[in-house]
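Quick one from the shared queue. A colleague (R.T.) flagged Sel1 repeat family protein as missing a structural entry in our internal table.

Convert sequence to C-alpha cells.
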Amino acid sequence: MRRRLAARLCLGLVVSFPLHAMAAVVDIDSVATDAGKAWQEFMQSAEFERAYSAYEVLDKVEYSAEGVDAEACRLHAAEVDDALVKAPVSIVVVRTALLCAEATGQAERATRLEGALVSLSREALKDGRQLPWPMPIRVLGPSDVYALLQVAGLEARYEYFVQTRPARYFPLAVAAWDAEAGKETTYLFDYVDVTSRLKGSNEYAGYPFYKDLLADFFEAAQVKGNELAAVDLKAVRTAMQLAEPAAKVKALRVSSGYGGIQSLRLWITLCARRPFSGCGEGLEDILLEQAEAKHVVPMVMLAFLHGEGLVARRDDEVADGLLAAALRRASAEEVALEYMSLATLADRPKAIGRKSLADAMERPAVRAALAAWKLQRDEHDLQESDLQVLAAPASNAIGVGHWWLSQYWREKDRKDLRLESLRLAAEAGDPGALQMQAFNLMTDSPEAAPGLVLDRMRSAALGGEVPAMKYLSDRAAMLHEWKAAERWLMASVRAGDSEAMLDLAALYAKDHAALGQSARQAMDWYVELGEAPAMGEARRRAAYMAMKGTGIAKDPLRAERWLLRDAETGDGTSQLLLAIGYLEGDLGPDGAVKAQPWIDRILAAKELGPKVGYADWLYRNRTGVEDRALAVRLWTEAQDDDESWALNNMAWAYCTAVDPAARNVAAGMKYSEKMLKQPDLAWGRLDTVAACQAASGDHAGAARSQQAVITRFTRYWSLDSLAEEHDQNGYLRRLRLYQQNKPYLDDSPATAD
C-alpha cells in the first residue's frame, strides 16, 4: 500500500465557503523573515476551504517528489501565485512555487521562495521529536508532511496515527530514515488541529466534534488512496467495535500484513490479554518481514514477542539481538519507549526490567515516561530524580510532565506545589490542567472570573476532556441553548462515552424543536443502548418513559421487563423504580402486593441510596404514622453517609412539607445546623439550610443563605447573574419569599427518579 498522499484533498463535503477575493495577510517575504509569526497571523485570518484550494495547483503543474513540469508552470503561473496567497505557510505549496521558479529561470523569485521554504522548515523541525511527549509539527495538510521530509533530506519509511480519535491533536507518526546519519527517527505531525482552528461555516466548527469530522474525511480520502496509515487506523477502529478477540484479530490481519503499526500493536495486546487458540498465527512472520526491512518498531515488537514468549518461542538471545540491532538504527530513547509501551499494552510490567535495555531505561526521557507510568498505576514512591525529569523542559513541550507532577503533589497533599504544576502544565496547553484550573477558579479564586473559566473549559473540551464537554453542554442546556448543548456532547458520544450518550438522549427526550429530535427517538436510543449489559441506566430511563407514556404510548409490560432485568440481579436503583412504579399504579394492578418484595429487598440490602430514595417517596406520599416513622428511621440510619443526601433530604422534608403534620421545623433546624458544620457545603444543601431558617422565622438569615446559594450557583456556571428563565431550581423564587418574610413549602410532586 502507498504511503504518499495525493497532493490535493478537497474538503467541500465537510465545509463550504464562498471563494471571494481576499487580500494576502501573510506574504512570502514575511514567512522568510519569521515563519512562527507568519503562522500566527495565518491562523488568525485564514479560511479553511480557501486555504485548502491552494493545493489544487500541485496537480496543474504536475508536482511530484522529482519536480514540476516547466511548461505547466508557465501556463498556470497566476494560479501558482494565487496558491501562495491562499496558503503561504504550506511547505508543499512554497516548494512547488520554488520548483516552478527554478524550472522557468526566475532566479530572484527562486531565492525569495527558498528563504521562505528554509524558514518554514526550520520552524517545523523545532517540534516533533521532544521525547517522551513531543509537540507535533504543525502542517496545513498531509502533503506538507512529505514535502518537509524531502526538504530535510529524510526518507519516509512507514507511518501511523498515534490515536484512534482526535483529542488535543491527532498526531501522525512518520518513521524517517536519515541516510547521512544512518538513523531512523520518528517525527510527529498534526494537520487536524490546524485545520480545525481555521475559520469555518460547518455547524460543528468551534466544537470538539469538528476534529472528528475532519479526521474522518482525511481517513476516507486516504483509505481510498490505499494510504497505509489510514487503512491501519480504519482496521483498528473496526476491531475496537467487535466483542470477541478472534473477530478483532481477523479485522486486523490485512492491515497488519502490510505493516500497519497500530494494528500490530493491538494484535499483540489481544494475544497477551485475551488469548485464544490460533491468536498469533502469522504474527511472527509479518514482524519478521518488517524487521528484515530494518523497520525499527517492528524489530522491537518481534523482540518483545521472543523476550516474553508471547506467540513466538521465548528466546532471550534472539530478543536481545533484535534490540541491539534496533539500538544501532534508532535512538535508545525510541527503542526503550516502544518496548515499554508494548509491556504496558500487554500487561507485562516486568518486561520493562530487561537487562539489555538497562542503559536506555536510564535516559531522562525514558525516566520521565517511567515516572508517569508509576503514577498511572497509583505508585507514588518517586525519587527526587524522577520529579526532576518530569519537570524538565524536554518533558513539557505540551505540558505532560507538569501534569503528572500535579497528580503526584495531589497525593502528597502539597496544594502549593500541585497548583504550581497545574499552572505550568496549563501554560503549555495541557487540556487536563486547563480543565482543573477552570474548576479551581470556580471555588478557590477570590473573585468570580466567568470569562477565564469558560476560556479554559473550552480549551480543555477542544483538547478532548470529556468532563469539560459535559460542563459546557450542561451550561448551554441551562441557558436553553439546545444546539450548543448537543454539539458539546457529540465528540464524547462518538468516542463511546456512555454518560455522554445518555445525556444526549436526555436532551432529545425533551422534544426541543431546535434539535430536530423527538422523545420518540430518545426512547429508541435508550432501548438500543439498553441492549448492552452494562447500560442499566438506559434501561431505567426507557422504563420510566414507558411507564409515564413519554415518547411512546404507555407500555407497563415493557417497562416492567426492563426494570426486572437489573432489579433481579440486585441493582437497588432499579428495585426502587420498580417498587414505586407498582405503588403508583404505573405497572398495572395489584401494585402494593408486587411492590412489597422489592421494598423488602431494598430494606435488607446494605446500599443506602435506594433506602433514602424510598424514604423520600414514603414521607411525601404516605400520611400514616408508621410509614413516616419508617422514612425517618431510614434517613436517620443513613444521615452520616454524605453521598446519600439523607441528612439534607430529612431536613428539607421537615422544613418544607405542605402537610402540617409532616413538618417538624425544630428537627429540621437541628439537622440543617449539623450540615453547616460540613466542610465545603454544597449549594444544594445550603438551599435546604435557608429553607429551614425561613421556616423557623429567621427570614433575614434565610435570605443571606439563599443569596449565597445563588452566588455560588452563578459562579459555578460562569454566569454574570441568574435570570428567571434559567432558574429551573427555583432559587430566585425562594429568595423573594424569604425577603417577604415567608417560608417556602414544597408542593412539587415526589418521584422516584
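The chain has a mean pLDDT of 93.
The two ends are 54 Å apart (CA to CA).
Added to the table.
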